[in-house]
Structures
1.
Amino acid sequence: MENRERWRQFDSKIINLNDINRIAGWIDYRQIPYSYQENPFEFKLLLRGSRDGFGIDTFHDLCDNNGATIVVVKVENSGKVIGGYNPINWSKGKIIGNDYYGRIIFRDYRCYTCNSFIFSLTNRNDSILSRVNSPIESIYWSSRKGPYFGDDLCMSSSSTWNSITRFYEHKIISEETFFAEDYEVFQVSIKNHQIRRKQMFENVDYTGILCVLPYDFWPTNCKLGNILLSMLLPRTFIG
């Protein structure tokens, strides 16, 4: 009964609850997916291209400043499903001022995080997880583009996406340019902070988890030492 209720609550035309449980496990650096009962995250649909539109401005209007998100893309005429996890905000960029008419001017901005990843769910029995190799190139903010995981996965214009393997571990799609039949963006939030805190102590491999901090604070390989680990344990966070 509980599983059927969660199916009704989860709104996607591209992925299913098994996919969500797998992605939640990747967020927490688990070796195996979460079960339905264990999954500590909620995934709220912010945008569906076929419902809301595929424009760059539509993406920013509906998805900016919503915290951690996952993006999933159904590739046109292929059956391929790929996506990415951004543990921080999306934005049009850094505000640098206003133009003559008072409109905000944005400058493209490179964000820093060790916790982003991209993935392929095309073959559910052999999914691909690709974690970021270059944290300073992990996430870009740009008013001229949609979801932007460096060069490795980027919505460059309406329905047009690009993927060139550079800053993440593995290639997730063979095509360098492709079109989206549909795409969705989900806000990722914690359902129960008390349960989440318990899980962070018991179930997670902390050696891979990092908070988003200025890039010169962290070692280049993004692995925590015992001192940094002791600083992180009391915290409850997503990315």
2.
Amino acid sequence: MAISMVKFNNILTGKYYVLFYVIVLLCIVYILLQFYRTTLLPKFKTLLSNRVTKNNTTYYYYHSSSYNTTNLEPNVSLYYHHATSDRNSSYPFISGDTFRAFSDYVYDETRNDNLSAVKYGDIVFVKTDMLPSFFNSSFNSIQEPFVLISHNSDYSAPGRYVKYLRNPKILHWYVSNLNQTNLQKISPIPIGLANTRWPQGNLDHITFAFKNHRKPWS
């Protein structure tokens, strides 16, 4: 053992020490290159291929590798109006942020768009627990009839805001957790999957489960 250590020390300090360090350095470079080629480069390519440009702004959206990104529908960008790395769409699946992403205007905890610019038929997304502030302030700035979506909350609706269904500015109201029935101009929509920003909303995990764990009858 002692002889082996002496020989090893001779390599580190003797005439072969340069060659030894060169070999170690080459091994490290090789490992880093393999990591880049197998892990970083595919993720970077996926990021570049999954982008939508709208109003001179490029949005990078998350799209599961389980789907064929070369044959997406021509209007796929409609599902990514407000998609960002933090608040992504779950398209082609339903989630609160899927509805949020294809809306024209957003009123929630992270966005507060200028609703005075709403045009006839535009879609306005409102976080359900922010309906009080929406109807007490921003609603009054809207001049044209619009479609309302409320989602991304455990709160139910319309509740005490049912009176706004009589307002001609609301063309239709789509709501998750609908708490009243037999109403005009209002329709329930599903809660859907967890948003992609949460671990349980990871689309790769979901599509993997669909492909590998589906029951024969499903």
